[in-house]
Write a structure and sequence with these properties.
The structure holds 3 protein chains of 3 kinds. By secondary structure, chain B is α+β, with helices and mostly antiparallel strands. Chain B is built from 7 helices and 4 strands, in the order H-H-H-H-E-H-H-E-E-E-H. Chain C is an alpha/beta fold. Chain C has 3 domains: about 190 residues, Rossmann fold, CATH 3.40.50.11540; about 70 residues, Ubiquitin-like (UB roll) (Roll); about 80 residues, NADH-ubiquinone oxidoreductase 51kDa subunit, iron-sulphur binding domain (de novo design (two linked rop proteins), Up-down Bundle), CATH 1.20.1440.230. The chains are: A alpha/beta, B alpha+beta, C alpha/beta. Chains B and C meet through helix 2, helix 4 and helix 5 of B and strand 5 and helix 11 of C.
Chain lengths: ~600, ~150, ~375
């Protein structure tokens, strides 16, 4: 085969595809080479040098992550020279690093700590450089804390922010001993273009970038006898939480999740999936209304394509990067915020509670949800709609703190009233899911028939391709929707903000014509969110996505408009989609932001 | 600051709006302003349609692309060993006495900033210094005093 | 000069008529040029000493229609000032060498990356460039040179960092492979040579490979510019044959009390008096980009070393661990030993660290810090401690 190269690693012959690295080749042989700056999702940096190996005939060691495998190469991964160098390198990193591990949020989940532990580093070989540095901690953002004293300058965050997310809120600044990871003019993450997506957080090997945790505040609320604590949990949490307890990626733990929340002491254990269904009702109606205004009324002020607005990372991205397109964003709040607004109105009314004494907590796969909850627009109920947003990871910490053996929990159900949901809601967690859910409902609304796909699975919108397009021909419509007869509904889906950027540029250039575009800020959608268990890799995201679709297939009801609690809430409280009350509670507006 | 906006635009017109144009534009700002402010830098980011953090990261990499305010005349004394051996410290002392500032500081009237720099390439004629872009070599106390006095009179 | 023969080819006027040699050379074929340069045995004058002919041949063999010629005039090595002198006195020879290379490899565009410290030369260089562009046009060569300015970053003298800098980025060295001959500036096949190397290729075109080879030794062909500074009565630029012994050099250039010579700048080696006799300056011995700093017995070698490590600490790009943190540790480490905060044995730990930097740093900067560190600590240990 012309496209393979043969090499020898530690005495074992191996053939790999041309273009693979020495590190890839070692993996084929199950030889573990330690790495720090390397990450499967990112381009190769080759800057930490922890993965150095010895190549016969080469004067110096080579970085296995950056060295292409070449024909006839003879590599040794565990020589005296290699061990020495690696140990020195880890010692050097530690000398620059605030190694106060017991007081670190990432204690026991830190890649540097693991390496130091593997190498049995018992005392400082070199001088402690930390006192020489003017390290700062930036904790102004409601989502992310950046602690430079923990940073090892691997630049995973920089590559994530630039290559995956096209945001570049973080960059490398200065050189030499002063080199650091920095925002524009070292401003707070809160004051720059950061979308709070947290993709940097799930790729940071140490505690330099972490989510701002609200664990203590949540405990305080739970233990406060004077408040009623409601918790909602997002679609993508239920297929990932198990990973925090040693389960393989792709395990569905919905029942254990509900059980654990109840044991933690939440007064009511509810489901964001309910408001995901509600989102479909509102957003689907909004899309049809926009189409009518554009196609029938020829109203030029109506903007198409309409963009989904569930992902707060994406929303902030467009506010910074494409402020001219804010009117294209659906005015629908995200499911988290719809839920929050209803908790302090509808739910409070039904349960005869004083909304001032409700604490509304959300469990999200997302760090941007913390920022979203704190947005001043998100007070439709007259109160802050969601008081505390915590990530899947923070929930896992709480479960461990409470001494709960998660894996042996029984499967329980969510409480009722805003606890019921459909398969259409759960797929919100994966890229393409909102589109699929919307199509299932909108198509049926317009034609009176189910979407013409086997078993309701719209496979064309699924997958991990960065940008996907799909179109649905609308035929034999109900009389009320005659204007849509024969219309080919054109849709597009992007996940990860780099791909969103690609779609936006195409739209801007006029080379793409869509009616409806779904964007999720994180690669893979919420399943790969910045609040999800660490690590994340393409393989892990695929497994989580598969689990989401399995969960959908296993649901009794799979179309949002068939959710009985949804029917009930429109009947008892909201009236109709896009009605007056919806407008007040479930819809929002956006703000133009600067691009620095 | 309309002037800086105008300057950045002019520089972008002259050097282009690609990534390759970034350094020439930043250098152009230095020539006019001696340092690059956050306002100037975000203008550059906008003109080149690139991330402001990347502009900042690029600028701070280069010693001559100062991001802190500098005086009209930036004096850079070569601190390489050969200049050091030929009396660099005395040159610094002389300037510090003349301008009443320490290395790293700017005079109150914003006229002079005193800095040290790495090898200027005048090792055979040390000590040497740059004032903005003009090199001065074979310095001694008398010569450096004369040069600085001349700048003071400017 | 008692021992060493002076050569005067680099600055010497070849003909009355400017660009005459270039015009004649451009009549030759690409193959002819490359084989002549290869035959001459010329090795790069920046310090690393890669065979120039081979570099040109590799790049010429690449199929990509877009290629670049880059002249590295980011002369930042402490103690080196020859490129400034060349660009001041004979810039046309540099441009000519670049044009010859362009013809040889099939490049249409060249860049001269000039360090920020030399920006004062720009008006003169631009004026010369105008004449040059006229000349290449007259000789039907489609080739244009652009001058790109640095802004105070030593690391940009590293070839891949220099490309990054021309591309408008932080001057951070890239992973190698790929090498510049395959993927250099803007990802295109690129020849990057030192200022002096380009002048040398013009010399070879004029003299012929055979005559060029009569200078120097079999491993180190030709003459070389030396930047002589420090404790010497005759500081300046000298064109000398490669392969001389350091003893002869010191006899000609020393002040009678030379205790050490730093060959090759901060990234080079320190040779103490007792080793002058056995040290050959050239690729078979101690290679150098031309920096020769002399120190007499009044100098503290601790101060010299400290000056170098401070330089590296500041000028490291900072991306790779061994270099970024290693340089800080070396600096603080020797300070701690000097102050008595660390015992003398800590110097051994630092020596081992320097060895690690040599084998594991990403680029030549980090790898070469150990050169001066180890050679100074080894040879002047007492001065480090007391």
């Amino acid at each position: 085969m012309a496209n393979t190269v043969n090499l020898n690693i530690d005495g074992i012959d191996v053939s790999v595809e041309a273009g693979k690295t020495v590190l890839d080749a070692a993996k084929e042989l199950n030889i573990h080479i330690p790495t720090l700056c390397y990450h499967e999702d990112l381009c190769v940096a080759g800057n930490c040098r922890v993965c150095v190996v010895e190549q016969e005939g080469a004067k110096n060691l080579v970085a296995s992550c950056a060295m292409p495998a070449q024909e006839g190469m003879v590599i040794h991964t565990n020589t005296h020279k290699v061990r020495n160098a690696r140990k020195h390198i880890v010692e050097l990193l530690l000398s620059e690093h605030n190694a106060d591990c017991t007081k670190c949020y990432k204690n026991k989940s830190c890649e540097l700590q693991d390496l130091a532990s593997d190498m049995i580093i018992s005392e400082n070989m070199f001088l402690d450089l930390v006192p020489e540095k003017n390290y700062t901690i930036d904790n102004f953002s409601p989502s992310i804390i950046k602690d430079d004293s923990k940073c090892i300058r691997c630049q995973r965050c920089v590559r994530t922010c630039h290559d995956l997310q096209h945001v570049s809120a973080l960059g490398v600044a200065y050189k030499g001993d002063k080199m650091k990871i920095s925002t524009f003019f070292e401003n707070s993450m809160f004051d720059v273009v950061c979308t709070n997506c947290g993709q940097c957080v799930i790729r940071c090997p140490t505690g330099a970038l972490i989510e701002k945790n609200y664990i203590e505040q949540v405990w305080d609320a739970i233990h406060d006898p004077n408040v009623h604590v409601v918790v909602q949990t997002a679609p993508a949490t239920r297929i990932a939480l198990g990973e925090e307890f040693g389960m393989e990626a792709g395990n569905i733990v919905t029942g254990k999740l509900a059980a654990s929340l109840r044991r933690l002491g939440f007064d009511s254990v509810l489901d964001t999936d309910f408001s995901a269904d509600l989102t479909i009702m509102e957003e689907g109606t909004e899309l049809l209304t926009r189409l009518k205004k554009a196609l029938v009324d020829k109203d030029a002020s109506v903007k198409l394509p309409m963009f989904t607005s569930c992902s707060p990372g994406w929303v902030k991205y467009i506010e910074h990067m494409y402020p001219d397109y804010l009117d294209n964003l659906s005015t629908c709040k995200s499911p988290q915020q719809m839920f929050g607004a209803l908790v302090k109105t509808y739910y409070a009314e039904k349960k005869k509670l004083d909304p001032a004494k409700i604490v509304s907590v959300s469990i999200m796969p997302c760090t941007a949800k913390k920022f979203e909850a704190a947005r001043p627009e998100m007070r439709g109920s007259g109160y802050q709609d969601v008081d505390l947003g915590i990530t899947t990871r923070e929930l896992a910490v709480m479960i461990k703190q409470a001494g709960i053996d998660f894996n042996s929990l029984p499967d329980e159900k969510f409480d009722s009233l805003m606890g019921q949901s459909t398969g259409a809601a759960v797929i919100f967690g994966a890229t393409g899911g909102v589109m699929e859910a919307a199509l299932r409902t909108a198509y049926e609304l317009v034609t009176g028939r189910e979407v013409p796909f086997e078993n309701l699975n719209i496979t064309a919108v699924r997958g991990m391709e960065g940008v996907r397009e799909a179109s649905v021909k609308i035929e034999n419509v109900l009389p009320a929707w005659s204007f849509l007869e024969g219309v080919e509904l054109k849709t597009a889906i992007a996940h990860g903000l780099k791909n969103a950027h690609q779609i936006m540029d195409a739209i801007k250039a006029g080379t793409a014509n869509y009616h409806f575009v779904e964007v999720m800020g994180c690669p893979g959608g919420c399943i790969g969110g910045g609040g999800q268990p660490i690590p994340t890799t393409p393989e892990i995201r695929q497994k989580r996505a598969d689990a989401i679709y399995r969960e959908d297939e296993g649901m009794e009801i799979r179309k949002s408009h068939e959710n009985p609690e949804i029917t009930q809430i429109y009947k008892e409280f909201l009236g109709e989609p896009l009605g007056h009350k919806s407008h007040e509670l479930l819809h929002t507006h956006y703000v133009k932001r600067k691009r620095v | 600051m309309p002037e800086i906006k105008e300057l950045v635009k002019q520089l972008a017109d002259k050097h282009g709006r690609n990534r390759e144009s970034l350094l020439p534009i930043l250098q152009g700002i230095i020539t006019e302003e001696q340092s690059i402010s956050d306002v100037a830098m975000s203008e550059v980011a906008e003109e080149l349609n690139m991330s402001a953090a990347l502009v900042y990261g690029t600028a701070t990499f280069y010693s001559f692309l100062d991001t802190e305010p500098r005086g009209t005349y930036v004096i850079r004394i070569c601190k390489t060993i050969t200049c050091d051996m030929k009396g660099k410290k005395q040159m610094i002392q002389t300037i510090e006495d003349l301008l009443k500032i320490k290395v790293g500081e700017t005079t109150k009237d914003n006229k002079f900033t005193l800095l040290e720099t790495n090898c200027l390439g005048w090792c055979h004629k040390g000590p040497a210094m740059l004032i903005n872009s003009t090199p001065y070599d074979s310095l001694d106390v008398n010569k450096i005093t004369e040069i600085i006095m001349e700048y003071i009179r400017k | 000069m008692k021992n060493l023969k002076r050569v005067d080819i680099i600055f010497g006027a070849y003909t009355q008529e400017k660009y005459k040699v270039l015009g004649e050379t451009l009549k030759k074929s690409s193959d002819q040029i490359i084989s002549e340069v290869t035959d001459s045995g010329l090795k790069g004058r920046g310090g690393a000493g890669f065979p120039t002919g081979l570099k040109w041949k590799y790049t010429a063999n690449e199929a990509d229609p877009i290629k670049y010629v880059v002249c590295n005039a980011d002369e930042g090595e402490p103690g080196t000032f020859k490129d400034r002198e060349i660009l001041t006195r004979v810039p046309r020879k540099v441009f000519s060498g670049m044009a010859i290379c362009a013809k040889a490899i099939g490049a249409k565009k060249g860049y001269l990356y000039l360090r920020g410290e030399y920006v004062y030369m720009l008006p003169d260089l631009m004026a010369e460039l105008e004449l040059f562009h006229k000349c290449v046009k007259e000789n039907n060569l489609d080739f244009e040179i652009k001058i790109s300015m640095g802004s105070g970053a030593y690391i940009c003298g590293e070839e891949s960092a220099l490309f990054e800098s021309i591309e408008g980025k932080r001057g951070e060295p890239r992973n190698k492979p790929p090498y510049p001959t395959v993927s250099g500036l803007f990802g295109k096949p690129t020849v990057i040579n030192n200022v002096e190397t380009f002048v040398n290729t013009l010399m070879i075109m004029r003299l012929g490979a055979d005559e060029f080879k009569t200078l120097g030794t079999s491993d180190s062909r030709g003459s070389k510019l030396f930047s002589v500074s420090g404790d010497t009565p005759v500081a300046g630029i000298f064109e000398l044959e490669l392969g001389m012994s350091l003893e002869d050099f010191v006899e000609d250039f020393g002040d009678g009390d030379t205790k050490a010579v730093q060959v090759g700048g901060a990234s080079g080696f320190c040779v103490p008096r007792k080793k002058f006799k056995d040290t050959i300056i050239g690729f078979e011995g101690v290679p150098t980009g031309g920096s020769m700093m002399l120190f007499n017995s009044s100098r503290s070698m601790y101060n010299v070393l400290k000056n170098y490590v401070e330089f590296f600490e500041e000028e490291s790009c900072g991306q790779c661990t061994p270099c970024r943190v290693g340089c800080q540790q070396l600096k603080l480490g020797i300070e701690a030993v000097k102050k008595g905060e660390k015992s003398a044995t800590y110097l051994d730990t630092l020596q081992k660290l320097a060895d690690t930097m040599k084998v594991s740093a990403k680029c030549g900067l980090g790898q070469s810090v150990a050169n001066s560190f180890s050679s100074i600590v080894d040879n002047f240990k007492e001065e480090m401690i007391y």
